[in-house]
Automatic annotation (TrEMBL), chains A, B, C, D, E, F:
This is Nicotinamide-nucleotide adenylyltransferase. NCBIfam families: arch_NMN_Atrans, cyt_tran_rel, PRK01153.1. It is an enzyme of class 2 (transferase). SUPFAM superfamilies: Nucleotidylyl transferase (SSF52374). Residues 6-131 form the Cytidyltransferase-like domain. One of its GO terms (biological process) is NAD+ biosynthetic process.
C-alpha cells in the first residue's frame, strides 16, 4: 500500500516555504495529503482566503513547481476544537496514512499521542515566508 | 478562468455510473469538482465508507478509467443540514464554479436558487449501479 | 413585492443612533428587517443583554420614536462563524430582501459578494452613541 | 409589565387554525410571541418553507385577520435537540413571558417543568386544517 | 496503573442485566467506566430519562447490588455522530482504559479499530430485561 | 431526597483549595456534584489536562483527603457558550440539586436567575493555590 504522510496547515497563504516542505516530504512518502485546516474561516486579516481559494492556490503552486499532482491529495477540513480527537477527525477525511508532517510542537504531540510517526521538515526562513 | 462544475454525491460507493457522469461532465467543463458529501458518516449500512476511503476510491477509479486527474478536484464535505445555505457552504470548500451537476430534483433546485446553472447528466441504469 | 432592507447589528444596546438609521432606511425601503446578531450571547461585558431583551428594547425604542412597526421585522439570529455562508444564513431567517444596510466594511463586502446591493447609512456621532 | 405568552410551532404552513389560536391567546395575554420552530429546515416535504417565508406568512395572515400586530412578536428559532434546555433556549430569544401556549403533551410538559404556566387552546378541526 | 474497562450504553433504563455486566466486568478489570451515552436526549419514548437521572439510577442500582462504588466511574456523554472519532471522543471524557466492553457489533468494531481490546459480556435474557 | 449542591470549575488542575471547598460543601449538603467544565479542551497552556485526566485527578485527591466518595459525583461537561441556558444544560447532566456552589459573580448570577440558591465558599488563598 502507498505510504502516505499528512501535512496540515492553514496555508493563509500557501507560499514557497510550504512548496519546499511538499517537495521534501515527497522524497519520504509515496503520497502526500495536504490538509487545509480552519476551512470554515475566511475574509479576515488572519484568514483572508476561503478553503476553496486555498485549494486552487495549492494546486496551482504545485503545478508551477512541477510537482507530480497524482501523488498529492488536497483536503480542506473545518476545525473541531477538541485536541484529543483532532487527529482521528483528520483521519476521517483522509486516505490512510503513516506519518504526520509538522513542526508545531502541539501538532507533533497530537500525532504522536494518536499513534502516528512524525516527520519534522527543516525550518524555512521566517524572514522570507510567513504564515 | 477555468470553467468548473461541481458534482456532489455520497458515493457509497463510487461506481461506474459515477465514472460515466465524470467523463460526461469533463466534456462540458474545464475542471470538475467531485464533492463527497455526508463526509462525517461511516461504518453504517447506508454509509459504509469513511470520507477518506471514498477519496481514495474516487481517485483510483478515475485513474483506472484513464481520466485526467489534473482536471479533477475531490473534496469531502460534512453535512450542514440547512438547505438554504447548502450551496454557499459547498462553495466555501470548492474552487469557484459555474455549473452544478445533479439529477436529484432538490439538489437541482438548490443550485438554481443559489444562482448556478445546472447540467443534468443522463441517467445510468439503476439495475446495474446503485447509490 | 415589498422592497426590503436587512439591517444587522448586535445592538448591545440599541441606541438613538440606531433609531436614526432605521428612520433613514425606511425612507429608502418599504420594509426593514432588523437582525439582532450574536443572539446566543448575553450576561457579558461586551454582550450584556439577551436576544429577547434586545428584541423588546428595539421594539420599545421604535414605538417611542413613533416609527411604523408594521413596516419593521425584528429577528434575532445566533452566530454561524462562516463568513462565506453568513448572508445566506441571514436570508434563511428573513423575508426576501434587496438591500443590505451596513457601514462595517466586512459586512458590506459580504452582502455584495452574496449579490445584494448595499445602502450605507450616514455615520452617527460616536461621541454620543456607542456600540 | 406586559403579560406574555409564547406559542411555538413549525407553521408549515401557518393556517386559519393557527390564526384562531392567536386570537384566542390575545384574549388572555397582553402580548403574544409566536415562535417559528425548526427554523433551519426548508425545501422538504415536511418542512417546505424557509423560516423567513414563514415569518412573512404569519405576519400577512395576522394582518388579513385584522389582529393588532403591535401586540405580537414573530421569532424564528433553530432546533436545539435537547429537551431539558429547550424552554430556556426559547426564552433566550424571546421577551420575558408567563405562559406557554401548547397542546402537544411533550411541549406542555417541558413548559411546566421549566416553571411556566400553560394555556391549552381549544383543538381546531384536523379535517379542515393540517400541520 | 489501574486496568480499566469502558462500558458504554444508553441505559434507558439501567436494569439488572446491566448490573450483571458490571459485576462480570469488575472481575476482569480494576476499575470500570460506565459511559451513559446519548446524554443530550430525554423526555422521549426511546429516551425517557435525562443523563442526570440515569447517573443517579446507575449509582443507586450499584449500591443496592453492593458493588464497590470506589471502583466505578459514571460518565454521561452527548453524542458526536462521527463513528471514526467516537472512541477517541469517549476517551476524552474518561480515565485511560485498556478494554472496551460491548456486545453491539458496531461498537465492538469501533473499539478494535481504535486499538482497544474488547471484552464481550455474556448475553442477558432479552425476555427479562430490555434496552 | 438527598440535598445536593453543584460545584462547577475547570479544575486545571484540581488543587487543595478545591479540596477545601469540597469539604466545606459536604458539611452543607448530603451529596456534592463536581462539574468539570470546558471538558472539550486539553493540551493547551490554559487547559492542559483532558476531562478524563481531571476526573481521575479529582477522585484521587478526594481519596487522599479521606472524603467519602459515595457522597460525590464527578461529571465532565463540554461548554455550551449560551449563558441563558447554561444552568439548565448543567442540570441535564447532573442529579437534581438545590444549591449552586460558586464564587465567580457571573456563575452566581446564572444559578440565581435559574432559580437555584447559591452557597458561596470562603476564598482560598490565591498565593498558595491557582486556577
Amino acid at each position: 500500500m502507498a505510504v502516505r504522510g499528512v501535512y496540515p496547515g492553514r496555508f493563509q497563504p500557501f507560499h514557497w516555504g510550504h512548496v519546499g516542505v511538499v517537495r521534501w516530504a515527497l522524497e519520504k512518502v509515496d503520497e502526500l495529503v495536504i490538509v487545509i485546516g480552519t476551512a470554515q474561516e475566511s475574509h479576515t486579516v488572519a484568514n483572508p482566503f476561503t478553503a476553496g481559494e486555498r485549494v486552487v492556490m495549492v494546486k496551482e503552486a504545485l503545478k508551477d513547481a512541477e510537482i507530480d499532482l497524482s501523488r498529492v491529495y488536497i483536503i480542506p477540513i473545518p476545525d473541531i476544537l477538541m485536541n484529543v480527537v483532532w487527529v482521528k477527525y483528520i483521519a476521517m477525511f483522509t486516505p490512510p496514512f503513516r506519518y504526520g508532517i509538522a513542526r508545531n510542537p502541539l501538532v507533533v504531540r497530537l500525532f504522536k499521542e494518536a499513534g502516528y510517526e512524525v516527520l519534522i521538515p527543516p525550518a524555512y526562513s521566517r524572514e522570507i515566508y510567513s504564515s
